[in-house]
Design brief:
The structure is a single chain. The protein has a 16-stranded antiparallel beta barrel. It has a single domain (3-15, 34-362), classed as Porin, CATH 2.40.160. β6 and β7 (165-184) form a beta hairpin. The protein is mainly beta. The protein has helices spanning 3-17, 22-28, and strands at residues 29-42, 55-68, 73-84, 97-107, 110-118, 150-162, 165-184, 187-206, 212-223, 234-247, 251-262, 266-280, 283-296, 306-322, 325-336, 350-362. It has 2 helices and 16 strands. The radius of gyration is 21 Å and the shape is globular.
């Protein structure tokens, strides 16, 4: 989104607020935000926007404006700014983007959002960029890659409380984007594909043990033909996700598994396991392992070929000076083919290591 469009959004919001008193605005308006800034360097290959010479051009920031029209009606706009270092995916990002923009209506224990809304997918999709919540710089790339983050349409949620159990149900429909990198004869390029006629649902169960939850998500969509990536049009695009999370006082354990299918193109499988131990007040030691595999479904001779894109082992430490300010340091050991340079996916896997140091703040 251009700065001109963002300026018009702010001007329009101000104009709509003019008839209200300052006291009324203060009672109805909410403002939240976050910023995560990182420095990183890689050892052997540029990877995930991180060059061998190092970069500080890694950032995620957002401002969220909420306006409560009544006890049951709310309007939310979130503007974001993302820097992806030297990644080709940076070409898809504007300086400022409309991250969310939706109207929300509550009906007792149910809630309806209409507009550009966070997609109910996985346990961390809605907070995937909030560094004060995440134990590492970013959410696991294998499950929370670029795109599949918001949906242009509507999302309905419903909460059920049964004693010590809690159930959160979600359903949604509309369209969304996915993004990635691929190697063509011309070299490595970034691409973005639009998916339409999408619909899906999610269930999250909060167990009687405080801080423990499990979840499952499914979505089906249609994808248009892409001349850029030689990808055919299909109505057979699916994503399934299963999740487990235990956030306890001194330890944490999280695992998520994702399977995606694009008819006649690829089967995608990904999972990660992450654990943490609290060593002292605000100080956590964390470890994570994540993997993904692409099984090609294209015609012979490549049909059935498995490509292990990412095997990433990470260890790190995070220290919360206070809940709104967190310092992190992490080390990653990588093997696979998803680098920021063209790679022969039928050759040996590339090995790489990288460090990330980050500061996260939120209010």
């Amino acid at each position: 989104m251009s700065m001109k469009k963002v300026t018009w959004i702010i001007v329009l919001a101000g104009a709509l607020a003019q008839p209200l008193s300052a006291q009324s605005i203060g009672e109805r308006l909410t403002l939240h935000g976050f910023l995560t800034q990182a420095y990183a360097d890689a050892s052997d290959y540029p990877i995930f926007g991180i060059p061998q010479e190092g970069t500080s051009d890694l950032r995620a920031a957002a401002l969220q404006f909420g306006y409560r029209m009544s006890d049951d009606d709310k309007f939310v706009v979130q503007l974001s700014h993302t820097r992806l270092g030297t990644s080709q995916l940076a070409s898809l990002e504007g300086d400022v983007e409309l991250d969310w923009g939706f109207y929300q209506r509550r009906f007792g224990d149910a809630s309806l959002r209409v507009g550009k809304v966070p997609m109910p997918r996985g346990l961390f999709n809605e907070v995937r960029d909030v560094g004060t919540i995440l134990p590492f710089y970013r959410a696991p790339k294998t499950v929370y890659g670029e795109g599949v983050e918001t949906i242009d349409g509507a999302a309905l949620s419903y909460q059920v409380n049964a004693g010590d159990w809690g159930i959160e149900l979600g359903a949604y429909g509309g369209g969304f984007e996915i993004a990635g990198q691929t190697t063509l004869e011309s070299g490595l390029i970034a691409f973005e594909s639009r998916l339409t006629s999408a619909y899906g649902g999610q269930v999250i169960v909060n167990l009687p043990v405080p801080g423990v939850r499990v979840g499952a998500t499914g979505v089906k969509a249609s994808i248009s033909e892409s001349e850029e990536t030689y990808s055919p049009a299909t109505d057979g695009f699916y994503i399934w996700t299963a999740s487990f999370d235990a956030a306890l006082d001194r330890v944490s354990l999280t695992a998520e598994y994702e399977k995606a299918h694009q008819e006649n193109v690829v089967d995608y499988k990904a999972y990660y396991v992450r654990g943490g131990v609290r060593l002292a007040e605000g100080l956590w030691l964390n470890a994570q392992a994540e993997y993904n595999t692409n099984t090609l479904l294209a015609p012979a001779p490549v049909a059935g070929t498995d490509i292990d894109g990412i095997r990433d082992y990470a260890v790190g430490a995070s220290y919360a000076i206070h809940p709104g300010l967190v310092l992190k340091a992490e080390y990653h050991d990588f093997a696979g083919y998803e680098l920021d340079v063209p790679v022969d996916v039928f050759g040996p896997k590339a090995d790489d290591t990288y460090f990330i140091f980050s500061v996260a703040t939120a209010f």
